[in-house]
UniProtKB/TrEMBL annotation:
This is CBS domain protein. Keywords: CBS domain. It comes from the Bacteria. Gene3D superfamilies: CBS-domain. The lineage of its organism: Bacteria, Bacillati, Bacillota, Bacilli, Lactobacillales. PANTHER family: CBS DOMAIN-CONTAINING PROTEIN CBSX3, MITOCHONDRIAL (PTHR43080), CYCLIC DI-AMP RECEPTOR B (PTHR43080:SF30). The keyword Secreted does not apply.
């Protein structure tokens, strides 16, 4: 469990932690790969959410996924960019949390993903939580914790952890 003081420094506020859906670049299921490519390259994203017509989360699309879809053993078939729909090649296995997420779950997931999608119980896309936002909080902790709090060693506990190789 994350301590209250650490949580307060890690997360400026729940509102700043989740980037709202209207501020996130997304593509639609029926968009062609050329549109997804434009979104990815123009905004310099590695990965973007894919939504259906009702703004429900359906998957993720990335540059490597697009490239795999238009390559064969001999060459890259750029003409396929305008033929293939995003829904045909998107990754449907994506990390997500519900709006009432636990911070511990988000931190565990962000070890392996650049962002986590936030959805409601009906799978409507609400936004994303980025690794960048958590790292900003980590930076705040590293620079501010000892300025704000008196910290003292719990010597027996410190020695026990050190002796177990966790220090």
């Amino acid at each position: 469990m994350i301590g209250k003081k650490i949580r307060n420094l890690l997360v400026d506020s729940e509102k700043t932690l989740v980037k709202p859906a209207e501020e996130v670049a997304v593509v639609g299921l029926k968009n062609r790969l050329n549109h997804a490519l434009l979104i990815l390259t123009t905004d310099k994203y590695a990965l973007v959410p894919v939504l259906d017509d009702q703004s429900k989360m359906r998957g993720l699309i990335s540059m490597p996924t697009i490239m795999q879809a238009i390559m064969n053993i001999e060459d890259v078939q750029f003409e396929k960019l305008g033929e293939i729909e995003v829904r045909e090649v998107m990754d449907t296995n994506y990390p997500y949390v519900y709006e009432d997420f636990e911070l511990e779950d988000v931190l565990r997931m962000l070890v392996n993903y650049a962002f986590i999608t936030v959805v409601d119980k009906d799978n409507y896309f609400k936004g994303i939580i980025t690794r960048s936002e958590i790292l900003k909080g980590t930076n705040r902790i590293a620079h501010e914790f000892e300025k704000l709090y008196d910290v003292k060693d719990k010597t027996p506990e410190k020695e026990r952890l050190y002796n177990k190789g966790r220090w």
